[in-house]
Design brief:
3 domains, six-stranded mixed β-sheet, 14 helices, 37% helix
Length: 419
């Protein structure tokens, strides 16, 4: 789960990590009021959206040289920047052309930056540890630095049981020519990050840049913080920070129903049960020459409503040109439950694109018969390869031999009635 920068900054501050003074505003008047309350002669005005690269982004219909992060030196400029950001759509490399609407901006005191560092902590699944990432070359070009100068990026594993080894970390970052007072502050920040990370079930904390000012302060000038979705049931205070207006409609609906859903940029909408089968289905679509419109893993459930809502995520996506359902019935997941959920969804929202279904496992014959007898134009497949090929063919109106041979087999299996 993502949160906004201003929320992450507040959490950092509460855990002893220094940040510049600042506050959030939802109107031009509030922005000027916040700026007036800060003891500063310049301010950073930052659009609050769920996206990185805000400074390099642009607002739809506005001057593309004016991004979502601006440094201003007067109250008139605060007012102008706030007016140009609030209520507008910010487009970045991460948001794509759809962009994100700016409902809030963050105003903080400007500072005299001498040096920009990079500091992050994240879950490293390959080593089953936390990973501390540090670089003396922080700022907007950190991705370029990682690609062109990987030696400039330190990756230090941290044992979850013992925590960060201060002496070992100090030995590794000492070569970056950081003055002793700031060196100690950075080590203190790393220890605070670890306590914050483990106490709040974080999945990522990124501070970029971690700035050293000319006055000798070490400050978190920007912050990205995400949390483990699977731990939110015990973190109602964290869950309450989610800004639902920043989530795409499909992702919001999926999160409400506990469905693992990620919107992608293709046109084949698909649904499978289990992460392994869902990933295999995605690969099969790509191998068949298609491009998935999403990743959708339906949890093992007995309730039709969850499967129905998952299916409606696909039917409501305007980018989808065909829908693929690939379900293996096992455990508490039954194929007839899936079939009934699909039929319920089709009553509520008629099918507008081709639908291809593969059901195997518990009650597969029952589920297939119900779909076949429904009168809806549904196509059926026996294998993963076949269901992927049929879905891609349907989306792109391809006509190939394997479809004809499959259709002959389906008639012999289900009779002459076309479903």
């Amino acid at each position: 789960m993502y949160i906004h920068e201003y929320q992450a900054k507040q959490i950092l501050k509460e855990h002893g990590i220094p940040v510049p003074p600042g506050w959030v505003a939802a109107s031009v008047e509030e922005a000027v009021e916040v700026a007036s309350s800060l003891d500063a002669t310049r301010w950073a005005i930052k659009a609050q959206v769920y996206s990185g690269g805000r400074g390099a982004g642009h607002f739809r219909g506005q001057d593309q040289s004016q991004g979502g992060v601006r440094i201003v030196v007067s109250f008139d400029e605060v007012k102008r920047a706030a007016g140009e950001m609030l209520g507008q759509v910010l487009i970045t490399d991460q948001t794509g052309s759809a962009g994100r609407k700016v409902e809030r901006i963050y105003i903080e005191s400007g500072c005299d930056v001498q040096r920009e560092l990079y500091l992050a902590m994240l879950v490293d699944r390959s080593s089953a540890r936390l990973l501390l990432v540090f670089s003396a070359k922080g700022g907007q070009d950190i991705e370029k630095t990682a690609a062109e100068d990987p030696a400039a990026i330190l990756r230090i594993p941290i044992d979850l049981l013992t925590g960060p080894d201060r002496d070992a970390i100090a030995a590794q970052i000492r070569d970056f020519d950081i003055a002793e007072p700031q060196f100690g502050q950075i080590l203190d920040i790393i220890e605070s990050m670890y306590r914050l990370f483990t106490s709040l079930d974080c999945s990522l904390i990124e501070i970029n840049p971690l700035a050293i000012t000319r006055q000798g302060e070490v400050l978190a000038l920007d912050a990205v913080m995400t949390f483990d979705d699977n731990a939110l049931f015990r973190r109602p205070d964290i869950r309450s920070l989610r800004d639902e207006s920043q989530l795409p409609e499909g992702q919001l609906r999926a999160s409400i129903h506990g469905i693992n859903y990620v919107k992608l940029d293709g046109d084949i909408g698909y649904m499978a049960n289990g992460a392994g089968l869902a990933l295999a289905t995605l690969d099969a679509i790509k191998y068949a020459g298609g491009n998935p419109a999403n990743f959708l893993d339906v949890p093992p459930v007995v309730e039709q409503a969850v499967v129905r809502d998952a299916f409606k995520l696909l039917t409501s996506d305007p980018d989808v040109k065909s829908i693929l359902v690939n379900i293996f019935g096992g455990g508490i997941m039954r194929c007839d439950t899936v079939a009934d959920a699909i039929l319920t969804a089709l009553v509520e929202e008629p099918l507008r694109v081709p639908l291809v279904v593969r059901l195997t496992g518990v009650n597969a014959e029952v589920g297939l018969r119900r779909l076949k007898d429904s009168g809806h134009d549904i196509r059926f497949a026996d294998s993963l390869t076949e269901v992927a090929n049929l879905a891609v063919d349907a989306a792109h109106a391809r006509k190939v031999d394997h479809r004809k041979s499959w259709w002959s087999r389906s008639k012999s299996l289900f009779g002459s009635h076309r479903g």
